[in-house]
């Protein structure tokens, strides 16, 4: 089954051109099936790009998925047309009385700011608290993962001397876990962050498990034992050129930043970056939708608790 999104959302054309099966809402309404209700709290500055990336992997499943895009009310993106936000996004107040099978909380470029100093922190706290009883499984990405570990489990982020930036090898810690099922023993994933989470802090928490990590990049996939909360410290959803765009942006802003590791052939920025994480991204997002949500979520959304 396809992903269910408005036909005029930019991702509809992008994914259709990639031969990914997307279905407009009008056609989906004729099918006698309950789609998975997935909300995406998009905290990334360039929201259309982030939509395309996430919807690409949420669509690679036999399940029908209906997406609700969320934005914060306490901070409005300066890098996305306001018309797009008004047309396709909702505020939390509009959905807080609903329940969802899944929720994705994206990363955000605010790592160097204390959590409580982020403009929308109070609103994010409200959403994360709401997710505990109104969402069956929540997937947190990069800064979103660090924010959730801090809020739910009192685990603080730690500043790095140098940004973790590039594509890194990871290993699977538990090969029989549903979320990592099908991943190679060694697989690749992009990272782009100035902060990290201590392995020791995670291991002290009896409800958390480390499912994957990297010798260079540190912890990668962390989850509660019931998989109701997933924390991914990197960016499996990134496109081929996302790290390149971030690198050129920082260089143009006069920042001292290294070329992303293991990304450009021969570290030549004129070369086309190699994508080595697409298969792993398809597996992890597919496993989350299938094993962590579809196989366990109540058929009646109102029974989520």
Automatic annotation (TrEMBL):
GO cellular component: cytoplasm
GO terms, molecular function: homoserine O-acetyltransferase activity; homoserine O-succinyltransferase activity
Involved pathway(s): Amino-acid biosynthesis; L-methionine biosynthesis via de novo pathway; O-acetyl-L-homoserine from L-homoserine: step 1/1
Principal EC category: transferase
GO biological process: L-methionine biosynthetic process from homoserine via O-succinyl-L-homoserine and cystathionine
Binding site for substrate: 163, 192, 249
Record carries keyword Cytoplasm: yes
Keywords: Acyltransferase, Amino-acid biosynthesis, Cytoplasm, Methionine biosynthesis, Transferase
Active-site residues, as the UniProt record annotates them: 142, 235, 237
Catalyses which reaction(s): L-homoserine + acetyl-CoA = O-acetyl-L-homoserine + CoA
Subcellular location: Cytoplasm
Site (Important for acyl-CoA specificity): residue numbering on this chain: 111
Annotated positions for site Important for substrate specificity: 192
EC identifiers of the protein: 2.3.1.31
Task performed by this protein: Transfers an acetyl group from acetyl-CoA to L-homoserine, forming acetyl-L-homoserine.
Similarity annotation: Belongs to the MetA family.
Stated name of the protein: Homoserine O-acetyltransferase
Gene name as annotated: metAA
């Amino acid at each position: 089954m396809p992903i269910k999104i408005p036909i005029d959302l930019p991702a509809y054309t992008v994914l259709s051109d990639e031969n990914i099966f997307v279905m407009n809402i009008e056609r989906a309404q004729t099918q006698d099936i309950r789609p998975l209700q997935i909300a995406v709290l998009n905290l990334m500055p360039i929201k259309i790009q982030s939509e395309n990336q996430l919807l690409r992997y949420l669509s690679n499943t036999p399940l029908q998925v209906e997406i609700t895009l969320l934005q914060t009310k306490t901070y409005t993106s300066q890098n996305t047309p306001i018309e797009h936000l008004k047309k396709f996004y909702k505020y939390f107040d509009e959905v807080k009385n609903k329940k969802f099978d899944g929720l994705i909380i994206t990363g955000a470029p605010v790592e160097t700011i204390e959590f409580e100093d982020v403009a929308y922190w109070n609103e994010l706290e409200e959403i994360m608290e709401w997710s505990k009883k109104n969402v069956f499984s929540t997937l947190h990405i990069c800064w979103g993962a660090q924010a959730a570990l801090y809020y739910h489990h009192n685990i603080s982020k730690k500043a790095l001397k140098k940004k973790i930036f590039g594509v890194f090898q990871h290993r699977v810690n538990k090969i029989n876990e549903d979320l990592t099922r099908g991943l190679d023993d060694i697989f690749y994933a992009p990272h782009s962050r100035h902060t990290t989470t201590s392995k020791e802090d995670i291991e002290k928490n009896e409800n958390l498990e480390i499912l994957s990590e990297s010798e260079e990049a540190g912890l990668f996939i962390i989850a509660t034992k019931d998989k109701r909360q997933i924390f991914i410290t990197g960016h499996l959803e990134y496109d081929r050129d996302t790290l390149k765009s971030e690198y050129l942006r920082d260089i143009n802003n006069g920042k001292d930043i290294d070329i992303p590791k293991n990304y450009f052939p021969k570290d030549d920025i004129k070369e086309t970056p190699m994508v080595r994480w697409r298969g792993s991204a398809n597996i992890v997002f597919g496993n989350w939708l299938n094993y962590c949500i579809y196989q366990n979520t109540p058929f009646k959304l109102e029974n989520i608790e």
